Amino acid sequence: MIDLWLIGIGTGNPDHVTLEAQAALRDAALVLVPRKGPDKSDLADLRHTILRACDSPARVVEFDMPVRNEALPYGARVARWHDEIATIWAETIAAAQPDGPVALLVWGDPGLYDSTLRIAARLDPVPRLRVLPGITALQALTAAHAIPFNSVNGAVTVTTGRRLRAQGWPGAADTVVAMLDGACAFQHLDPDGLHIWWGAYLGMPEQVLDAGPLARAGPRIIDERAAARARHGWIMDTYLMRRVTPPGDAGD
User: Fold this and answer.
1) What is the layout of strands, in order, in the sheet containing 102-106?
2) In this predicted model, what pLDDT tens digit does every residue of 67-117 receive, in sequence order?
3) Rounded to whole angstroms, how far apart are CA atoms 104 and 86?
4) How buried is residue 167: exposed, middle or buried, by Cβ count under 10 Å (0-12/13-18/19+)?
């Protein structure tokens, strides 16, 4: 049985890595770093930058992430992908034969819309887990726009672009945050009375922000997102929408 540490590293800014996470990275014996192809090589590079900034002496081993089979139904596709990742982790760790804890650097926080914990549960034997929280994309987004996460006594729904597109606005929510939305699901909503705050590459030098009434900001965000993705070869973004439009058209 191994000790597996899942370390939240925030949204791309090395300064977001907590002191607890820095200490853990200095104590780890092995760090696994995923490679997601040449177009996303800067994601692996940033992990290496964080390790150097923390003065981590850990051995670093990179591994190639498998590609999801888009021909399968969504649930089966994700389950098989997780199985394949778990197998790669197990094989990589076995080959490395670490003499101490194994660490994985997880974007944002391991507990919020991230599957690292579910993948770890597939290992046999299940490792002794330690989870270190990180700054989430939600925190980075609201901080970048200087807005509160919730309205006064208001309900917040955190959902996916897939569900937002299929089911529309959650009826009881004053505020909706969309994660994992690669198709700008907000464009399928009635924009009347909705305000959107959007951000990509949050916390990174490439950070891009936009905000305003959804009817006007939405088309702008779609264009900005496409241009940023073409420029970098990848994109990580999220957005928050609220029914109560604040005074003024900030970002418009």
Assistant:
1) 59-64, 30-35, 102-106, 3-8, 128-132
2) 999 999 999 999 999 999 999 999 999 999 999 999 999 999 999 999 999
3) 13
4) exposed
| Cα–Cα dist 112/179, whole Å | 10
Is the alpha carbon torsion for 157, 160, 163, 167 positive or negative? positive
Omega of the bond prior to 125 within 30 degrees of 0, cis?
yes
C-alpha triplet 193, 201, 112: angle, nearest 5°: 75
* Rounded-to-5 percentages of helix, strand, coil across the chain: 40, 25, 40
Provide the 8-state DSSP code for 3: E
pLDDT surpassing 70 at residue 206? yes
Query: With the CA atoms of 212, 213, 215 and 216 taken in that order, what torsion angle do they form, in degrees rounded to the nearest 10?
Result: -40
- What domains are there in the chain, each with its CATH number? 3-135 (3.40.1010.10), 138-242 (3.30.950.10)
CB count, 10 Å around CB of 190?
A: 10
Q: If you write DSSP's letter for every residue of 102-115 in order, what string do you get?
A: EEEEESB-TTSS--
Per-residue confidence (pLDDT) for residue 40, from 0 to 100: 63
Nearest to 173 by CA among 163, 181, 182: 163
Residue with tokens 């990580």: 236
Encoded tokens for 153: 């006594």
C-alpha neighbours within 13 Å on the C-beta side of residue 179: 12
